[in-house]
Write a structure and sequence with these properties.
The structure is a homodimer. By secondary structure, chain A is mainly alpha-helical. The first copy, chain A, has helices spanning 5-20, 27-34, 38-44, 48-68, 77-94, 96-108, 112-133, 143-159, 161-167, 170-173, 175-188. Chain A has two domains: 1-45, Homeodomain-like (Arc Repressor Mutant, subunit A, Orthogonal Bundle); 57-188, Tetracycline Repressor, domain 2 (Orthogonal Bundle), CATH 1.10.357.10. Chain A contains eleven helices and no strands. The longest helix of chain A has 22 residues, at 112-133. The radius of gyration of chain A is 19 Å and the shape is elongated. Chain A starts with a helix and ends with a helix.
DNA sequence: TTTCTGATTGACCGATCGGTCGGTTCATGC
DNA sequence: GCATGAACCGACCGATCGGTCAATCAGAAA
């Protein structure tokens, strides 16, 4: 329990911000939860905005790091997509806060999230495109659309559970079924 | 200019809430923008929460009404999906606030949005399922997943423009290309 | 021991928040 | 003309917000 107080503040902010968003979380709330004086927060972080950005940065970093390892393993492009979707699903399932932070950032019009994973996505798009050129994948669509679609769907699966569970509660009874069917839906849409 | 002040307040709240979300919009802000006294807002709406709910209700209603008309026209299920996606895209493009409101509601865990369009989605799912039974559409996947996927993707296309535009700015140069390719991707994923 | 620096605190600030209150204007029915 | 109730306003309230500041504390350097 000898983590520095700064770490402690950050950890509390991580959770509170992820759960309630920027403006529903007050500095006093964080201070109380972290068991420190309010002014200590302003000592370590210039202001609330910077604390928010730092928290966001933390989640964004965790996300890109988690995804970066994928691209070098699989050579079969179809199998790569399958595995990417699966691992992204598992990752968000284990860290739903990440998806929530992206959602907050999007509503704010934050452009940093795009800067961050742009190289990652561009790389994936290129892989798909060469597979298109080689005839392994159907041509005629922008690969980025495919990636955007499945990332978005997986994110919202966890964010909007309150919504979709009323469409069909089975969606959430067996998450594995969901992702498996979503993957097959996606794959059979691109086989040439 | 003879709209009642109540309407005026609601109209202003509609825009401000959609742009900034619940907690970034203050009653004073709405009052000033609407050119009325602050207390008038509390005269017409019990409190901020109720005003927010009323605004949300307004958008949700507009959304369901816009979608309801679709189901009776087209008999070919594939064509129905195509048209549904296209019209939903056009609708959100013309009313991006709707998507934003759903996004806010989701982050809050609001369950009302699900209650609202559940019958709509259930009806669409059934149509797809009978098409599956008749062999017109590939079997083996939950139709709700298909619907959820394309609604989600379309919503986020407009909400997260700040993000995806950095993945590939072409996505937003020709919105028609985007939705056309997304539709074809979806359709070719379900043809039997 | 003294000095210096960063960590930490509690008291405090002005601004703004959602909301209330007392009162005025105004349309309508009697 | 007058009573009534809704529409409407400005002044005001307590609470809380993000943020500041002077002071203390702990430990390393000298």
């Amino acid at each position: 329990m000898n983590t520095s107080k700064r770490q402690q503040i950050l950890a509390v902010a991580l959770n509170l911000f992820a759960e309630f968003g920027f403006s529903h979380v007050s500095i006093s709330m964080i201070a109380k939860e972290a068991g420190v004086g309010k002014s200590l927060i302003f000592h370590h972080f210039n202001n609330k905005e910077q604390l928010w950005n730092e928290v966001k940065h933390h989640y964004f970093l965790a996300y890109t790091e988690a995804q970066l390892s994928l691209f070098d393993q699989e050579k079969d492009p179809i199998e790569l997509i399958r595995k990417s979707m699966h691992s992204y699903f598992n990752y968000v399932q284990a860290n739903p806060q990440v998806a929530r932070f992206f959602a907050y950032a999007h509503l704010e019009g934050d452009e940093k999230c795009g800067e961050m994973d742009q190289p990652l996505i561009r790389r994936g798009s290129e892989l798909i495109q060469t597979a298109q050129d080689n005839g392994l994948i159907r041509k005629g669509f922008n690969p980025t659309i495919l990636i955007m679609s499945f990332i978005t769907t997986i994110n919202q699966y966890f964010i909007a559970q309150c919504h979709f569970t009323q469409w069909d509660h089975r969606l959430y009874q067996e998450p594995d079924h969901f992702i498996t069917e979503l993957i097959e839906l996606t794959i059979s849409g691109i086989k040439s």
